[in-house]
Amino acid sequence: MSGRKASEVNSLLRNGEKTRCASIDILNSSCKNAKESTDKAKRKKEECKTKISNIDFVISDDAKCEFPNLANELEEEVKKLKNEKSATVPMFDSLEYDNLMADYKKNDEFADVVRKNLKRKISSQGRNDPWYCDSEYADAKKVQDNYRKLSQRVSDLNRDSSKIETSSNAYISNLDMRLKRAEKLREEIEDLEDKTRAVKNMRKKASEAKSRVNDDFNEIEQQIADKFLKEEYCELKQIVDKFKKYDDDSAVKECTEIVSKISSFRNKLDEKYGEYIRRKEELTVKLITLEKRVNKQVFSDPEDEFSENDANMNSLIEFLKKFSKEDYPFEILERLEKSEKMIRDDKFDETEKELKSVEALIADASEYAANLHENKMKTIYNMLTIEKAMLELNYDVNVSENPNGEDGYCVECSAGDECITFDKVSVVDDGRVIITIDHKEATKGTCAASWDEIRKKLAENELFIEDITKNGKSIHGANREVQGHKNESTVKQNLSR
Q1: Cα–Cα distance between 259 and 459 in angstroms, integer?
Q2: Contact 446/456 with Cβ under 8 angstroms?
């Protein structure tokens, strides 16, 4: 008859409980940024509404008489601006975050109860007792399932918050452009009134009319006109050039019509150019938001978390470059640079698709980095637990980091001629704990006694070793075959932290 071991219970309890700091830090940052962005968007909406309502868009009767078409166009633009409904302000609801933190706390408390029950059972059993803990395992399984669900909620909320931040910044950008349009309309109405007064006076002198037409036309930026309305610009230039050759009487008669045509062209050009600037600004804001996200200092150095000093913080890019062999940093930076170049080249549709793809890539990289951070924290914790236990058993202990970062740490323990080496202490990508041991005995045949003492001490420090084998056979009496190396001792255990 067999049952669940204490190590299995502890493995479930350790998984994802106390080393999730990176995921929570990222979530806190994302939620904070989302809340700040949505609050700013609300304030911006009210500011935009107030400023537009305070602008005087009234066109005089003289202007309507002198420039009926232009006046009508401006009135339509004003009407369109005032009737334009703003998009719904992005909303950030902190309820899910509060519920999530409360659920984490509730599950932590449940885990503590299970751990106390486990320790109570272990302390009441003998040295060779198998420590069957079926009921505790069932409770620990519930704890693990809860943490898994909570982790997914963290990931979902993180993604949602990041999207809200991006959409809020884009919303604010659109409001800024709307205010610029309103101010531009006000300036155009003022300019129309100036033109009206000027035209009435211009009738006195044809030379003044021609000068006015020439000045108005020269105010058009040819480079912008060639980019957006090249054909119409060329036609207008021909009209203006012809007007310059009119006699005085004809110049006076045609002045108003020519000025009106120039103004209509300028309005159309301003609309085209304004839409171009709005689109470019919106994409630029999205790009800057993503650049800030990958460069924000949110990941701590895992070893620093166990020191008395403040932890050194890293950005997503810095952390992945330091601790991962994945291509995330290079791909993210390359695609952000690509997006920036596409914006410069005015490839707006392609840029929008690329930025959506990059945002998803950054979200995946953040999740990977958070998991990597947690595994490194687990590795360090396990190493420190072993070091503490062996020091308490009066071993001289030397800890070193393996050249291959994936192999974690090496813990060398010696007492006289006896040498015990935990030559690989690490946690791999899927959360499994790897611990391999090489044991050279001081006196042949004393391995079982030595390891029995070590096994108890590790258990006191919440590291539970199920079985110790040598040359494929258990030194505790279990006669089952396990993969091992001759002249080495290996430990089969299940641990997560």
Answers
A1: 92
A2: no
**What residues does 438 pair with on adjacent strands?**
421
Rounded Cα–Cα distance for residues 469 and 478 (Å): 9
pLDDT (tens digit per residue) in 182-224: 778 778 888 888 888 877 766 666 677 778 888 888 888 888 8
- Retrieve residue 30's tokens: 């994302």
The residues that bridge with 415 in the sheet, in sequence order, are 418
Kindly list the strands in the beta sheet with 396-401, ordered across the sheet, starting from the edge strand earlier in the chain. 396-401, 409-415, 418-427, 433-440
H or E element, residue 252: helix 248-295
Let me know: does 383 contact 373? Beta carbons within 8 Å: no
pLDDT of residue 489: 38
Least confident of 272-281, 297-306, 390-399: 297-306
Question: pTM for the full model?
Answer: 0.63
Q: To which residue do tokens 């700013």 refer?
A: 40
Under 8 Å between Cβ of 23 and 151: yes
What are the distances in angstroms from CA 174 to CA 43, 322, 348?
A: 14, 39, 16
CB 357, CB 335: distance < 8 Å? yes
Q: How far apart are CA 312 and CA 294, in angstroms?
A: 17
Question: Which residues have C-beta within 8 Å of that of residue 225, sequence separation ≥ 6?
Answer: 233, 269
Strand extents, DSSP E, 102-251: none
Residues with Cβ < 8 Å from 169, sequence gap 6 or more? 37, 285, 286, 289
Torsions phi, psi for 37 (to 5 deg)? -70, -45
Say which DSSP state 114 is in: H
Domain covering 380-493, topology: Double Stranded RNA Binding Domain (3.30.160)
Residue 425 DSSP SS3: strand
CA-CA distance, 286 to 282, in Å (whole number)? 6
Please say if the pLDDT value at position 425 is more than 90: no
CA distance 6 to 281: 59
Distances (CA, A) of 176 to 42, 152, 278, 468: 13, 36, 9, 69
